Amino acid sequence: MSHQHALSAPQTPARALRRDAQRNRDAIVAAARKAFAEQGLDASLEGVAREAGVAIGTLYRHFPRRLDLVEELFTAKFTELLAAAEEAAAMDDAWEGFCHYLERLCELQACDRAFNDLASARLPLHALGRGMFERAQELGAQIFHNAQQQGALRADVTPEDLAFVVWSQAGIIQATRAVAPNAWRRHLHLLLDAFRAQCAHELPEPPLTPRQFGQTLISLECPEQECADCQEES
Questions:
Q1: What 3-state class would DSSP assign to 117?
Q2: How far is it, in rounded angstroms, from Cα 37 to Cα 96?
Q3: Which of 109, 117, 152, 200 could join 122 via S-S bond, C-beta 3.0 to 4.6 A?
Q4: Distance (Å, rounded) from C-alpha 142 to C-alpha 131?
Q5: For the range 189-197, what are the long-range contacts, defined as Cβ-Cβ under 8 Å and sequence gap of 24 or more?
Q6: pLDDT at position 227, please?
């Protein structure tokens, strides 16, 4: 699946869909939600169409690109995440807000394989809508700095360090999904204890720089790192 194109901005249709067309669209979305949650972002669109009881051409008339369907499915998910971030940023106890936000993020990862793919950078982050991404960045930074200012979050932690929570949880969730679907929660709280200021010890390595962090995202999108585009970016 190509990850090179950003999602288009949502468009308001000029007129409402006919009843049968709306029924087909609803069936496609419902089938895609189930398939993507179970199989991830690479779920077969032919399988989605078959489950929805429509021809593949009908699916493509409603969603010309896979990313259009991804946007339809996950705008609501990211809206839910932003609501949790707003709530966390407003909490008087900044450590409680920090934990609440990360737990809600990991919970969304755990219940939906495709969201887990998205959270661990299987698609370019800007593809989810620039406004939503920028607002998530703002809230995440606020939650982070609130916890540090209150002295609850260790001072040597950087926002780049928090990405390791998401990446590690992605692997844990995938590995334990079938045998212990809530195992991620135990490991999240082990990680949270490591972020507490009262548990801080000197770390043997510095954090990733923003440039290193960007290079890491590129490697997640193109694991082989053999293509010319990857080499130019690095």
A1: helix
A2: 29
A3: 117
A4: 17
A5: 191/165, 192/99, 192/102, 195/98, 195/153, 195/154, 195/157, 196/95, 196/152, 196/153, 196/154, 197/151, 197/152, 197/153, 197/154, 197/155
A6: 40
